[in-house]
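haha ok so turns out i had the wrong file open the whole time. this is the CORRECT one, sorry everyone. sequence first:
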Amino acid sequence: MADSSGTAKTAESRARGIRATGRRRKGPTRRRRAVTITLCTLTSAALLGGAGLGYVYFKLNGNLKGVDINAALGHDRPKNIDDGSMNILVMGSDSRAGKNGEYGKDEGGARSDTAMIVHVYKGHKKASVVSVPRDTMIKRPDCIKDGKDVPGAQRAMFNTAFEVGGPACAVKTVESISDVRMDHFVEVDFTGFKKLIDALGGVDITTSKAIDDDHSHLHLQPGKHNLNGEQSLGLVRTRHGVPGGDGSDLGRIQLQQAFIKALMNQVKNVGVLTNPTKLYDIADTATKAITTDTELNSVSELTGLAKSLGNIGSQNIDMVTLPVTYDPANPDRVVPLTKKSEQVWDALRVDKEIPKSAIKGSAGDQGGTDKYVK
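then structure:
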């Protein structure tokens, strides 16, 4: 039973336009591709302001898609702690269906190309983002999708959880390996990501080294660039074009994290508040681009969340990769460094900063996020 202080915190959360359901209230920050999209989406939603009236409000609300994560997972979940902080699982879907077919063969289901746990600290002035490599070998729990049982696996790639069990299974898998409850879920796909970047007018980045990758259709010389949606997607997807990289997901994560910082800075300077047409275009594109949990799939909820996160800048976000090492059984895969990973999850559970010792020696954080892109 909540005490009086807990009640006060809940009331404060509601006053900010955020419902006190789920462990901790957090807000999407922009990391990696998924995070990129998340922050973009939420910031765009925050810009709605006076636009959320009448037909505009109704139309934007109709764009949103929601998944009832709480109903799907029931009560067998990590402890629900209402302390003012939040955890959001942000995922990038790489379905090859429809317009996404240009990126590869449609094999019948979406996969999670990007996954980040965004932890917004109490007070909503800073955040930590933990990127989980898609190639991480984990124990996947049993799940249910469309009323059918989806058996778990002792050794499975992390991204298979989303592929075989959808959003609810992805959330269940994250919670099972971290024992950290996710308050929200946000997913964005290839096409929505490209359109959102184009609506924002592109993103300015500076590459310190050439990036050349035919697989992601990206060819950039060192220097300053304004990337359109297609180029931005290529940047956050590239694995083979990272100078000195090994073609794994780890190098791509470094690029994604750097891109997110650039995107966050860009959004703050878009100038849409004085341009109603651009404001609407961004809001319309953002709300079409994402799928959220059912507690966020309304313009009012997204706006409330985005406004509560308005004081978090790129300089207030700590981005790390889940501590991993290369899998001895398969060098193309990685496995969590158990003790170091626990340091990460322990910190998030108690709303503390992730200690530097947790990522020291990890294969996932080599060289920092500005190694290739600034």
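DSSP finds eleven helices and 17 strands in the chain.
again sry for the mixup
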